[in-house]
Amino acid sequence: MAKGIKDRVAILGMGCSKFGERWDASPEDLMVEAYVEALADAGIAAEQIDAAWFSTHMDDVGTGRGGTPLSIALRLPDIGVTRVENFCAGGSEAIRAAVYAVAAGACDIALAVGVEKLKDTGYGGLPVATVGTYIPQWYPNAVAPANFAQLASAYRTRHGVDAALLKRAIAHVSVKSHANGARNPKAHLRNTITEDQVLKAPIVAEPLGLFDCCGVSDGAAAVIVTRPDLARALGKSDLVTFKALQVVASNGWEMQANEWDGSYVHTARVAARRAYAEAGIANPRKDISMTEVHDCFSITELVTMEDLGLSEPGQAVRDVLDGVFDADGAVPCQIDGGLKCFGHPIGASGIRMLYEMYLQLLGRAGTRQLVDPRIGLTHNLGGQPSQNICSVSIVGLEGV
Amino acid sequence: MVGIVEYGGYIPRLRLDRRAVAEANAWYAPNLSGKARGSRAMANWDEDSLTMAVAAARDCLGTAEDRGHVAAVFLASCTLPFTERLNAGVLCEALTLAPATDALEFGGSQRAGLSALIQGLVRARADGGKVLVIGADNRKAQAASGQELDYGDGAGALLVGGDKVLASFLGAGTVTVDFVDHFRQAGRETDYAWEERWIRDEGISKLVPQAVAAALAQAGVAAGDVDHFIFPSSFKKMDEQVANRCGIPTEAVVDALLDRIGDTGTGHALLLLAHVLESAKPGQVIVAAQFGSGAQAVVFRVTEEIASFRPAKGVSAWLARGVAERNYTKFLSFKGQLALERGMRGEQDRKTALTTAYRHRAAILGLVGGRCQETGRVHFPPSRFAHGQGQGQPLQDTQVPYKMAERQGTVLSWSAEYLSFHRAPPHTYGQVDFDGGGRILMEFTDVAKGDIEAGTKVEMVFRIKDIDDLRGYTRYFWKAVPVRPGQALEQQAAE
């Protein structure tokens, strides 16, 4: 049995750019914005960084392939930089690589940076992805909203949920995230909305309307990690440490075996189970103080609550409507606004989620600060429910 | 004795309301009001003469997995999507016919349907093999022309051979002369036609009876003994006039379905033959004729075997399942005659890797998956490794080809979205679980709002997947449509 990552690596510093329609900024500017904050927070010199991992999804919108876009933008001191790419879970992958490198003893201090400059694509919504030469010959020319919307049709069937009730529950998800995002100065969308607005919005992909979809944003986030002993030697006292880092990639079972019912995300359930085991969490609903999950669409967040064991199967509709995941609920979700309102620059999102956990655990979250959070969970879903990469990461105060 | 041993047809679901077209064009061509009756069959955006040919062939051959009895495919059309690339070869792949199948194309004239049929009969008589003869057209005319209203889209298919003959071949007649009633130069999209009276009086009235007389003479049948006379022409009562000139009783003239589907072109005589055979009685004589660069005619006698065969759906069922389309701009757009704003997502490059297409042609064109011999699980696309029971050694190279096109499925999940560029929004797709195993995330076509729900039963159709406008390449795959009983032409397409 592997020993796991629990408490072996700590966060030394973090930074995050303002997310949004950053017409003023290039990807390089965004990376610098996040990195400068992280470096200052870590209190180290750039030369102390041993290696870096770079997460970006779209190679054709200004960030480019390979590791050099990061090393050149940040003028890194002749170190190894690896680009990682795992759809929307790329940021979490960059974290995992940096943390594992430190845990392995190969590095003392490692950097992970994620960036995406979606507003330079010209699209409202994600651009069309290229998926090789074979898949487009048979696979629908599908878009993310419809891929995720299928969760809703299957969920309704699986649990016998009335379409109008489910629509209202997922509307609540969006209303909650807007309320949270309004209190976050770095969030893309800072307006509050009503349930009525969500229900009346134009349909993007049945049954998802405009307000059921997350923002398409520019942004970058950065994290510097090290061993707890080195963090203390560098003058840090309250340490946020990694408790679990789990990633599961679909092996195609969902789309081929006729067994998956389409109403949940299989990889998320496996990743959550492993993450809880790694972190030593027996009762997630009681032990997890807060979550940042991959709410690319409102239905995704609702289903994710069940995948993470925070709601019983079929009960998330009720829990969501009861406010369990609101900022003042039992397990607050998307305190920072989530993908929905903080925004979703794909390669940066996993690190942005960690940033909120870090701020909350250190009591630095300003007007949206939760009372005494101790354990936070982040969840990324790259790809689509039927074929994806899912990450579940757990962080918390050292020793908790 | 050779003759027709199986038959089928295909008519697209959409039926363009002629009054709607006349009204849309009334400001410009008020003369069209004279044709503003009934409807014409209208191919969906993802249908062309090749996909309709596949549909007609499947109607004819039925759902049996083994199609080894088809020795050759003769495809007749004046509107095939590829001028160079064997369209009939695509059709063979879609029907999962063996590589040894001969495949030929006929065209150049509206009579090519009967030309292919006669050659198929000759071939069957010569070597005893069965020949699948298909005629199909996706017809295009100038906007606001009379042809736009007269024409229709559709396909007919006949399997000819020597065993269990439903209608025995008695004789054929041909007249080949360069009488140019209309023409279309290579590279042009629409026809140029000469004056109607000259075509009727000097062309059809003189040339068709010669071909019919020759056919009847070879058949040894008197004109007065003809029970069903098929002569597709969009000229009013032309069929009756030709019958009279030939000495064929007026009551033998077969309804050419022009009010309901229009003149579907090269394949129309085959489509009408398939329709007549649905109700023909043993001993009856059927004569079919087509006009074009002369004329061609063929004579059959229905046998006692006629009751032993039914097509998968049949022309009557295709006729009954239409939905009225009253949107003229949709028709123009589907025919490529109206350039609508596509948005940025419409700029996506749809280049096809021909190497990949070839390597996976069975999966893509034939919808052939892989069935694991160890677990029975069906994989699409087929793969080297199969999903096991979650235990033990990987199941490597355990899959054997497994045909999925003739199997029905059930919708597991779906959505309909307005974001991507799609020629008929909303773009609707979802997971389909196949009866007997297998699951594909696939597109739905021929659907309106409310047609698709989780649990909806679907069947497969061969359709255009993507059109690469940049390079002029059409790519095909299979889509799901709801399994529908025949329905009256009352319902309007809702999208």
From TrEMBL, chain A:
NCBIfam families: PRK06157.1 (NF004810). InterPro entries: Thiolase (IPR002155), Thiolase-like (IPR016039), Thiolase_C_2 (IPR055140), Thiolase_N (IPR020616). This is Acetyl-CoA acetyltransferase. GO terms for molecular function: acetyl-CoA C-acyltransferase activity. Residues 257-391 form the Thiolase C-terminal domain. Residues 20-227 form the Thiolase N-terminal domain. Keywords: Transferase.
Automatic annotation (TrEMBL), chain B:
Residues 405-463 form the ChsH2 C-terminal OB-fold domain. GO terms for molecular function: acyltransferase activity. It comes from the Bacteria. Keywords: Transferase. Gene3D superfamilies: 3.40.47.10. Residues 216-296 form the Beta-ketoacyl-[acyl-carrier-protein] synthase III C-terminal domain. Pfam families: ACP_syn_III_C, OB_ChsH2_C. InterPro entries: ACP_syn_III_C, ChsH2_C, NA-bd_OB-fold, Thiolase-like. This is Hydroxymethylglutaryl-CoA synthase family protein. It comes from Oleomonas cavernae. The lineage of its organism: Bacteria, Pseudomonadati, Pseudomonadota, Alphaproteobacteria, Acetobacterales.
